[in-house]
Amino acid sequence: MSCDYVLELGCGTGRFTRALIEAGIPEENLVCVEIDGELFNYLAGEFKKARVIRGNACDMMSIIPGELIGKIGVVVSGIPMINLPHVVQKAIVDGCMNVMRPRGEIIQFTYSPLASLNTSLLGLRKRKVATVFRNFPPATVWAYERAPSVNSL
């Protein structure tokens, strides 16, 4: 993966965090954001080389260290976006776009076959990456990136 850092949102018990490390992402290149205090403490103890941050993904610009802004190439999200109000989705997506490099992507896991983000309302372009049938219910993986603006065409 050609990026400096990978930002993971909603890390939970670290299942995706471990998978990212096993896939070859250096642990020191992981930035893990978790809102729950107990899970944050667990993650901080489990992933000592990663930057584990306790915070709300809606407050991205205030929780991500300034030296990482623009150096994040991919955001991996386990947050159940499909269940969140549009205003919360927008805050998270806008925050991600503000901390990532210009051509960064948001990788979103959902347990619905439908995309969890309304791309037209959020100014995004989407593509279905995979369906994981080993999960129950099956998980769908979507990649989102900034949609090209009308002015740039």
From TrEMBL:
This is Methyltransferase domain-containing protein. The keyword S-adenosyl-L-methionine applies. Residues 6-104 form the Methyltransferase domain. Gene3D superfamilies: Vaccinia Virus protein VP39. InterPro entries: Methyltransf_25 (IPR041698), rRNA_Ade_Mease_Trfase_CS (IPR020596), SAM-dependent_MTases_sf (IPR029063). Keywords: S-adenosyl-L-methionine. It comes from Candidatus Hydrogenosomobacter endosymbioticus.
